Amino acid sequence: MExxxxxxxxxxxxxxxxxxxxxxxxxxxxxxxxxxELCFVELAEPDIVTGVDxxxxxxxxxxxxxxxxxxxxxxxxxxxxxxxxxxxxxHPSLEIACGTPFGVHETMIDxxxxxxxxxxxxxxxxxxxxxxxxxxxxxDTKRDIAAIARRLKEKTNVPHVDxxxxxxIRPTLDEGLKQANASTYRHVFVVPYxxxxxxxxxxxxxxxxxxxxxxxxxxxCSYLGYHPRLITLxxxxxxxxxxxxxxx
Length: 248
Known about the structure:
248 residues, CbiX-like
């Protein structure tokens, strides 16, 4: 029997855990696989090994792991594989197939555009976008955010898209805000490239509050959240992993 194990980043913030759980409930309604469980990389329970245990306890013989992560960095490259290896030792006969983070995908660009379009002010030739990534010491993170920014600029025809990060990489959030504040653009659309609410969103809100007296009009967009479009990406991954099994 097949199961899906969704792996969220995890947070100490109850609202963030609740958002992940609600999203998985929507996935369950859209995906016809009998066993579907949620677990977390860190900061919340159940952990990944426990998530696998729960799938097996319900009769799973094959577990498809879906990382609910935006980009491929340390969690996707190291933490999740290590946890799955531990789970495999506990359940030697279990087949485990692991998907990938959402990554640089056209659907992710569309989600950003959806969040920007929620603002009362539309993008125009006096607008710029500041895309804020979480940040990671993994060099792929900066490369991927830069690729998303380039595609966003192409798709919106906005004059300028800049990037900054909340941790580990430069430019920092402060540097990104300072650069935008010194620009000649009238409207600055600030887009947190984050999947869930929490401390990082509060940090962005606090920094922007100090800029309300600047010449620019600042528009803080919602974080990406567990957007309905993500279910389509998950369905595509499931289809690909199922085809891989058939071709094995």
